[in-house]
């Protein structure tokens, strides 16, 4: 999870719970959908995590623009618990009328591989609407490490007979990035879970652990200060905020791609015109100059995926992480 203290400008001007309609436009018409939605009724966006994290901040920025575009009140409700399962299950049981939406993160596609008996099915119980942001991870080593790129890292790990990599948790996006790297590169790596990215970073800086996969927001300041060395970002393209750090794909492993993301969903069978309207607002909101600047400052990037593309993406992510989890024999307590 990406932590509040590393984010900038996060909640400036936003209410803690209700994002009223605003004069700030996102370049779209305020004509209501054919169904009459929204008909003077608040739209509730459920975030299945605690306030202040990256998912919550993304949700509140989107809610602000959605309220402006639809001339509606948009309420952000935090329903944390069970790694996002409680809030996600709540939305899956709501009516598909456009008044209850879900903004969640990569756990949506990872946890089905870790816990088959979830109280919902990500493949069937949701309408896939938009990806609001991508947030890649970074492969890091201590500043004095002898390796300087991903290929050298793989060779070093195998020469040593195995190398540890830290991450912020078991089953999180950063951990999965490392497990996928093992599969794609053939590197002999062993995962060491930490309770949060800051603890892993402290040990990495002190060379108490020889490598780590951590989210870019937690890592960026330490990369720029030279306290750690970034070998590669896990996204398909380089991060604008870290332009000198190559991707894993361009470092010799072209099939590799792994990154956290924040997505917008609704209950299954949400009317098509509502899905289309929400997608339109989400794409335009995420790609305004102000939001692109904010995302870049927070080591993230926007998306322009259509609902059909989001559905294809989610299904591919579910399949990918299920395979990685099975092959790596990842379990959670």
TrEMBL record:
PROSITE patterns: PROKAR_LIPOPROTEIN. Keywords: Receptor, Signal. Coiled coil: none annotated. Belongs to the UPF0065 (bug) family. Residues 1-22 form the signal peptide. The lineage of its organism: Bacteria, Pseudomonadati, Pseudomonadota, Betaproteobacteria, Burkholderiales. This is Tripartite-type tricarboxylate transporter receptor subunit TctC. Pfam families: TctC.
